[in-house]
Amino acid sequence: DKNRDTPANVRFRALPKGRREDKFVALADLSLDAQGWQDCPTDWRAPFFPAASGDWATFPPLISFFDYNGSGVMPGRTWVIAPDRQSLEQRWVRLTGERDAVKQEDLFHPHEGGDKTVSKKSQTELTGHEHRSAAVKDDPLPVIAPARYGFRSFDRQWIIPDARLINRPNPTLWAGYSPKQVYLVGLQRHSPTSGPAITFSGLVPDHDYYKGSFAGRAHPLWRDVAAKVPNIPTQLLGALADVYGHPVSADDVMAYLAAVMAHPAFTARFLGDLIQPGLRVPLTADPELFAEAAALGRVVIWLHTYGERFADPAAGRPKAPPRMAEGARPFIPEGGSIPGAPEPLPDMMEYDPAKRRLRVGNGFVDNVSPEMWAYEVSGKQVVWHWFSYRRLDRTRPQIGDKRPPSPLDKMQPDHWLAEYTSDLIDLLNVLGRVIAMEPTQADLLERILKAELIKADHLKTAVIV
User: Fold this and answer.
1) Which is nearest to 449 in space by CA: 285, 279, 252?
2) Does any domain span residue 137?
């Protein structure tokens, strides 16, 4: 019978993998009395997936390691982001120079029912950037200086940091940004399927930063621009200090998460448990294992942020784009330069595993391993997707908003830029070093799982779960 005070029992069953015909056979034989049903959580708003079970259920949830997590920036219009500053400056000039009101609104690309238009004034300020309250149509000034932006995992682009143009800028993320800020990003309503379970950005991240779809949540290391107030709960830091017998910093915790979760072995190890969205953390009770993971995780974050965070020259981490060892690093040989003007932008990127050569148009990069080329974040091949935003044809499949994108999107360089080449070399070096660390991270994860763990129940007294 109905009971408005008690949630219904929900059970889950997966059909066998394989052909559609096999699934229909399984459906035909299905009954509520059959074996194999799994109970789902009984919370009112729990997802319709099996409840966490086994060791996985005893791990603390990732969200309990942070006081705050939020959606990344939701631009709502693609023309405010580009892989180069020049495109954004030219788009702004085109937009504000249009004198036909209807055409100008079309260039702006407002959402139906949205509150951002060329006529809308703004009260929202993005900390650290110029604030203009006047409507865009009345703004005679040059574009607000474009800012580096965490567009996708391992892909840094540029954005116009103007609240009049961004549908949902999430001012909290901008307010906490500083040269010391680190954002951990991972899926929450969906689960990773391959690659690292989490990635990191030193820049304010996009709503779809993790993999380009299915959104995600950004977890800052710091709550303030001075990087004095940690976003790691003080109760958690105190509880860990009691377990390990010495103080534990917010940096230590963030680095531990990087070492344990930012690699493919974590995702593969817990793929069956990840049928229910929501990442969990195997938290070691061994102070030596924690220290080892924290040291390793600092390198991971340094790599993910292109050397801009957790730099330590004495430890071999200069504040500069990371490089692989001599002889192992990718390079452009004589005759391999990717042509710029007057040649048009290339539209092709191909990989030759026999030559270990990555060809970009009429240029190429040598010493690129198959693992670099194939590296992915939950199904998204990083190198190819990086190129897809810099090629001649940058059109994307229409998802959600079915209207054609703004004509401003078509404003892009007519040739390959030197900075694209530099960014590509940086990307390949970062991926090469990330890949080289994965066996060490996988080994560490297994040793952590075999040792004593701090269970979620043990942390409830610290009021963090």
Assistant:
1) 285
2) no
Would 393 be classed as within a structural domain?
no
Burial class (CB in 10 A: 0-12, 13-18, 19+), 156: buried
Q: How far apart are CA 136 and CA 108, in angstroms?
A: 9
What's the pLDDT score for residue 144? 98
DSSP-derived secondary structure letter, 227: S
pLDDT at 464: 47
**12 within a domain of the structure (yes/no):** yes
Strand partners, 245: none
The Cα 30–Cα 345 span in angstroms is: 55
Give the domain extent around 6: 1-49
Q: Kindly state whether residue 24 falls inside one of the protein's structural domains.
A: yes
Strand, helix or coil at 103? helix
Give the span between the Cα atoms of 109 and 163, in whole angstroms. 15
Could you count the other beta carbons within 10 Å of the beta carbon of residue 277? 14
**How many domains does the structure of the chain reveal?**
1
Reading across the β-sheet that carries 147-152, which strands appear in turn?
81-82, 155-159, 147-152
In the predicted structure, residue 17 carries a pLDDT above the cut 60 = yes
**pLDDT, tens digit (0-9, with 9 covering 90-100), for 37-54:** 888 888 887 778 777 778
How far is 388 from 396, CA to CA, in rounded Å? 9
Residue 463 has pLDDT above 80, yes or no: no
CA-based nearest residue to 445, from 317, 303, 270: 270
